[in-house]
Amino acid sequence: MTRLKQIIPALLFVLFFSIQAGAQDYFMHTVTQGQGLYSISRMYGVTEDDIIKLNPGSEKVIRAGESLRIPVRKSTSSGKFHTIQKGETLYRLSVENRVSVKEICDANPGLSAQNFKIGQVITIPAPSDEDPLASSIENAGDEAPQEILDDTETILSDTAGFKGTHEVKRRETIYRISRNYGITQEEFLEANPEYKYKKLRRGAIVNIPYSAEELAQRRMRRDQAISRIESIPDSTLFNMNGRRNEKYDGTINAALILPFSLDDTTSLEQKRMVEFYQGMLLALEKLKNENVSVNLKLYDSKGENSSIEPLLQSGKLDDVDIVFGTRHPNHITAAAKWSTEHQVPLVPLPISTNMDDVYNNPYVFQINTPQSYFHQEIFSHFFRQFPNPNVIILDADEYNRNSFIDGLKTALADRHQTYTTVMIDTAYQQIMNALVPGKQNLFIINTPNSEPLNTMLPVLQLVTRNKAPEIETHLFGYPQYQYYASDHLNEMYEVDTWFYSWFYTNNMLREAVDFNAAFRRAFSRQMMISYPSYASYGYDTGYFFLKELATYGKDFGNHLNDLDTEPVQMGFKFERVNNWGGYINRKVFFVHFSNDYKVLKVDFDK
Predict the structure, then answer these.
(1) What is the rounded CA–CA span in Å between residue 255 and residue 272?
(2) Structure-model confidence comparison of residues 326 and 160, the more confident one
(3) What's the mean pLDDT in 78-95?
């Protein structure tokens, strides 16, 4: 490293250049599956109206693959967003924006040599005072390839103004010295202009310049070295400046911050928080049996109107490797800011689906999927399970707004498929008329509420009994159907019911049976009956993330979908929302109450 540090200062002058790009009012964003105006506006710090003004019609629908103009933020003190263009390299972006490669990599933890391509949007930090390439090489340390160090040494050696110096001996002349060094008298005098007017004297120190031939060779070597450095492959720069993974040799330190509200031990919310904690304790017990040591610190965040800033600033969390919690939006925002400053993963309680922090914080892991992403995942599985659907929407007029139904209609239109709408108060004969042989006839009520389901189940039973045997029919519904199953199980079996959900368990599944037994042994009581189960939430969340940390180290974010942890209630399928943001869980199950009286939990990712 000492030798490398000697090389760095020379690059400050030799390699720096800056290109002043023309100002633009917008940059381009390519919509990915699941993104909506809300999520896109939040990740870029603009309003939905700002986007709509530049993209008329986007307020109605946007589709994956579509390009949107995104207005440039007024303030650039924290950097800017940039859409990668044809021919751009990581090196050129670094130099043109006067930031090191490491700064770009750190600001975009989701960026890699594999996805550094045209159309990707990245965030570029504000310029620094250091030479970008010099900083990149210095930050790389021992990771810098030898050929790059050789080229920088070539550049350093070729910046010297003279080949060397010479001490004049008795009777030496300019002619003799020039001849001995292979240079002309004119070249000597240019390097020593004072001797145009005075004589050489014994003992004088004179500069010896490079000859014209040597200068040409030096320029060629220097140009070649600069050209090679400018052509450093993106993969090499990512390897030099990427995050270094750190394994845990000893104990993992974790913190759990929940609103236990210990002054109100009778509230349902307090009981749920206790069960979440108890579920996590069962996860720690399993990890202990697998030789994973975890030290869990527990903190009460109290009510929504309280502040967790005193805890965050107390230093009590400074040695933790991961934080679980909190529950309330203002607490999540404060914890997310702390997680960025301390570079510690934050896993908020799996309740809220609208957490803006995930769009700009690379350390946030959002377990419950935002609605737009959630629906796209459902539709992808829907058409995989039912490739030839005949959708019959059962319309309960008083429930006339349903984002799932709206999205499904758009997805059907994108596939050039139609649907039929039937009012539930005149449903039977219209449904019978709408059935199509050879297709998968799917009944979907336009609301997850229980009343229309109660009304329609007897009607659908009649349809199932009276339809032609060769006609295939199914009821497709919502996560709430698992709440209603205890009252309508036989009807749901008979009409062959499917529903989607991000969580599901029942006592007929092996994981649930084992977990219920473990909970009873540990706490001498049954879990509360709730949908979802908070004890299962705590167990699934704690075991998944702590096992990931123990297996893959601090860089576990690159391996989130490589580990099968067999959760009791949830599933995990994480993706980054963008190159600079955090992760969202896109896991969706389909649950099938089949007409042969079986219950199946369908995982499309296995």
Answers:
(1) 18
(2) 326
(3) 88
Given a contact cutoff of 8 angstroms between Cβ atoms, the answer to whether 10 and 156 are in contact is yes
pLDDT over 50 (residue 555): yes
CB 591 within 8 Å of CB 53 = no
CB-CB contact of 285 with 326 (8 Å): no
CA distances from 243 to 109, 248, 453, 556 (A): 8, 16, 52, 11
User: Which H helix or E strand runs over 124?
Assistant: strand 121-124
Please name the residue that has the structure tokens 């180290």. 553
Cα–Cα dist 587/604, whole Å: 9
**Are residues 588 and 500 in contact, defined by beta-carbon separation less than 8 angstroms?**
yes
Cα–Cα distance, 155 to 173 (Å, whole number): 33
Distance CA 79, CA 27 (A): 14
Burial class (CB in 10 A: 0-12, 13-18, 19+), 489: middle
User: If we measure between CA atoms, which residue out of 394, 384, 389 comes closest to residue 463?
Assistant: 394
Output the six-digit token pair for 35: 């993104």
Write down the pTM of the prediction: 0.82
94 close to 101: Cβ distance less than 8 angstroms = yes
3-state secondary structure of 604: coil
Q: Do the beta carbons of residue 268 and residue 166 sit within 8 Å? A: no
- Nearest CA to 158 out of 261, 10, 311 is that of 10
